[in-house]
Amino acid sequence: MAVDKAEIESYFMQVVVQYNCGDIRDILTKKPEKAGPLLACTVNGIDIVGGMMLGFNEGSKKRSVVFMRQHLGMTEEEAKLMYALVRCGLAHEGVTKLAIQFFVHEDRIHPAEFLYKDHENSIWLNVTELAHCYLEAVERIGADIHAHCAHVPKAISKDELIYQNALALVKRDITEFCGVIAENQRKPQSSLSPFLAACLKHFTAGKK
Known about the structure:
Blueprint: H1 5-29, H2 36-54, H3 60-71, H4 76-93, E1 100-103, E2 115-117, E3 123-126, H5 127-142, H6 145-148, H7 157-167, H8 174-184
Parallel strand pairs: 1-3
Antiparallel strand pairs: 2-3
Helix pairs in contact: 1-2, 1-5, 2-3, 2-4, 2-5, 3-4
């Protein structure tokens, strides 16, 4: 079933541009010395936009590889390395696999190039440059969203049931937290662009 174009645009602008890319830009602005948070946000973004391209029922490997080939100019083998050894290593083992090193660097020494090798057969990933390339790809896609994206994730009944079961167990009211914050005159911190579920009706549990 075709997805409403307005829903695609809403998801792309809110989740991809404001939420995911917003976090990436915020990290870059702070000139990080640690690569992990920036890398995690970037590979997650690649997966998200790949899902908007192919459909979220496709495996994350296919979604990510296709995005990296089409929008980052990577070869099939480079994209598979990025998915299996970088993305999956980080997600499932907490660090990249095998002899893959990753780093951040403020200056864009070789724009659009982020993979290197050394004489000890290690592969080096410039996470800062990867992040910039991803942001540039999103900007290009955003110029004509529907030429590239045709899907948004849909809630399934199993997820809705889990949500409702958990909702019944959560006891603390958020107003209690906000009250303490107000008393201390401190502003709670969140992602740069908080995820607004109310604007994404397919994520509202219990509604079809």
